[in-house]
Amino acid sequence: MAVRQDAAMEGKTCDVKFSSSSLVRDYEEHTGRKISEESTANLPSDVRQETIRSLFRNKGALATSANWEGERRIKLTSCLKQASAHFHRIADFIRQGKPVVGCFRVDEEFHTLEPEEIYHCEAETEAETHGQIRFAHYVLFVGYGYDIYDEAYLVFLNSLGTGFGNNGFGRVYFDEIYKDWFYVLKAKAPAVAETGASTSSNIAQGR
After folding, report:
1. Secondary structure (3-state) at 67
2. pLDDT in tens, 19-30
3. Of the CATH numbers 3.40.1280.10, 3.30.479.30, 3.90.70.10, 3.40.50.40, which one belongs to the domain with range 84-179?
4. What is d(CA 16, CA 75) in angstroms, rounded to the nearest whole number?
């Protein structure tokens, strides 16, 4: 979204698609750990997102586009972490059109969120999940509002496709979201590569 926003500001269209699997590979090579086998019990709670943030800024992630052949690495210009974030602060970023990502705890019921629902994770402890999976899930926040009881919520775009929630979008109460794990992203749209030039190892660095 950050790349497309930058392109739009310059009156350009953007079809850049990032490879999430390349970020996973970079993470595993950097840490020497397999994510699928990684136990976070003895690791800092934010180790994954902080490592990915560093890799995305310093190394970039592989991406494809009709404007170049193969894959090309694109870096984040900045990834500002918001600690102890308040609702109005995050709402301001969203109002300004800045990409904001964050995470909240979910269980299996999250996948069946109805279009009119505002998500709330009922299970407070592992014992209350009754065997269901409970984990932290990252999303892109694109809107905000209040319910009929004046409780604040954020609108998010999920990564589960248009079959989720309301055509791929959902709502979650702000109090459910981890307040120290908001990130505001910025990236520079890559220049179109010259015809015939090799771009597989090029890096588009934000300025």
Report:
1. coil
2. 888 889 999 999
3. 3.90.70.10
4. 12
